[in-house]
Structure formats: structure tokens, C-alpha cells
Amino acid sequence: KPNLYFFRDSQGREIDILHKSGRDLLGIEIKSSSTWNASFKKALQHFSKNHHTLIKSYIAYSGENKAFSDHIEALNFRDISRIFN
Fold this sequence. Notes:
By secondary structure, the chain is mainly β. The chain has one helix at 42-50; strands at residues 3-8, 14-21, 24-30, 56-61, 66-67, 72-76. The chain has one domain (3-84): Trna Endonuclease, Chain: A, domain 1 (3-Layer(aba) Sandwich).
């Protein structure tokens, strides 16, 4: 049974989905845009630095898949199911 949560801090930074599996925590942001924007990563990076380290972070949007060296991966909506496998 997945443990899914929403996060919002006092500054308005939000993480759409936090997925807890054992002691591990994944962050998932969902964006409606088909154009990549580096600002999509900001809330995930802030959360991982200031609250709890995310073992992996994903940004689901309608554009193309991208991998980043800072443990953040952008993927198209149609590929989101692989996060939970």
C-alpha cells in the first residue's frame, strides 16, 4: 500500500506527491506544461535540502524525458507508472 502525501511549507513551496516506502522518500511534481523550465526543480531541491533527503525526485509533465545529475528526473505523463514499480 503506497503512502502518498502532499507537502506545503509556510513560504508556499509545494510538493505535489511525496511517496514514502519504508524509510525512503520520493518527491513528485506534476506540471501541465509541455515546455521544460528549470524552475520546476526548485521545490524538490528545497525540500530535499531543508526537510528530508529525497532518494529520487521526478517531475511529470507533457514534454520529453530528461535526466539530471542532482537525482531529479523529468518524465512524460505517459511514463509515470514506472515510478511506482
